[in-house]
């Protein structure tokens, strides 16, 4: 269900906000109001622009031949010494100056966390025990995907939502050397599936493909090892690693998740932390009350991983969690072809664009790399309606850790 209050809050919160435009190619003194001003061929200038004038001033800058290379909230930048003391926010009345090369970017929320990294390294991995190995693909689905849970009670391995661990499969490669590490996104919260700080879980699809030269079936070494793992069997684990996909701390944030297949792993960790009763009880300082939206691409309905639990959360928290499927072999896009995640993004591009302009919105993308171009194309089309270059705007989001991507 769409929370109708979101749009209203956006308008009221943005009405009083001021943004800093970093522009190159404008008049030598930053004269946005003078169409005949001499063109600045090198360097950049800064303007402060109130939200209500962003579209108008963007068109004015483009008409003058300027190029917007960065947009950020004025609250995140120190511009008092660069804007000649003006507080009006009108680009036509602000004296701009050159951008200093040592200007500080936005401070990412995630940098406030103490992030555990490489507690266990390849030369000295943690030896965990498989506690469970459960099939996630329903009858009639494609392939096999397992949810595996490992015991951590004998060591010091701890992690945060959005991190990964390494697995060293048993045996040796064709050269007689130990197999290399494969990284997998963690699918459990930092407290583990049992909320006792003693386990870690993975969501693993068994890799299987045809050799292009001889047509023989090839199975992935590590994924096959894990999917065939027996309860009680020992596993070599390294890590944790990763800071790209850390969940934002703000309990009132908008969390937008776009994923395909086993790319749902970190999103399961986020959602369980946000909404599961035991997790909420274990985290009194983090009671999620924002908007979480999962856009999930899968080939068939039986391939919807964690389906019952996802839909249970949706039913219990309809105002806080929205679930959108892109089922490629069952649904059609607007052109009559298969429905992939990028088509869902295009359908919802206007809403997504409005959300990413809110400074409490965090986007996470995980899964197949092929979806990235389609997502960018949809967002670029929407941003261009306001005269904004999406690639540059996305760059500012990345700097603020508000556009996070982990694809393969």
UniProtKB/TrEMBL annotation:
Which residue stretches belong to region Disordered? 77-113
Mention any one GO cellular component term assigned to this protein in its UniProt record.
Answer: plasma membrane-derived thylakoid membrane
User: Where is it located?
Assistant: Cellular thylakoid membrane
Required cofactor names:
FAD
Key words of the record? Antenna complex, FAD, Flavoprotein, Membrane, NADP, Oxidoreductase, Phycobilisome, Thylakoid
CDD domains per the UniProt record, alphabetical: CYPOR_like_FNR
Q: What class of enzyme is it?
A: oxidoreductase
Q: Which residues cross the membrane?
A: none
Q: Where is the composition biased (Polar residues)?
A: 77-109
The membrane topology of this protein is:
Peripheral membrane protein
What EC number(s) are associated with this protein in UniProt? Answer: 1.18.1.2
Give the matching InterPro entries. CpcD-like_dom, FAD-bd_FR_type, Flavoprot_Pyr_Nucl_cyt_Rdtase, FNR, FNR_nucleotide-bd, FNR_plant_Cyanobacteria, OxRdtase_FAD/NAD-bd, Riboflavin_synthase-like_b-brl
**Can you give the residue ranges of the FAD-binding FR-type domain?**
123-247
Q: Where is the CpcD-like domain?
A: 16-74
Q: What are the protein's GO molecular function terms?
A: ferredoxin-NADP+ reductase activity
* Record's catalysed reaction(s): 2 reduced [2Fe-2S]-[ferredoxin] + NADP(+) + H(+) = 2 oxidized [2Fe-2S]-[ferredoxin] + NADPH
What single Pfam family name could you report for this chain, choosing any that match?
A: CpcD
Q: Where does NADP(+) bind?
A: 185, 205, 262, 328-329, 367-368, 406
Similarity annotation: Belongs to the ferredoxin--NADP reductase type 1 family.
* Annotated protein name in UniProt: Ferredoxin--NADP reductase
Q: Which organism is it from?
A: Phormidesmis priestleyi Ana
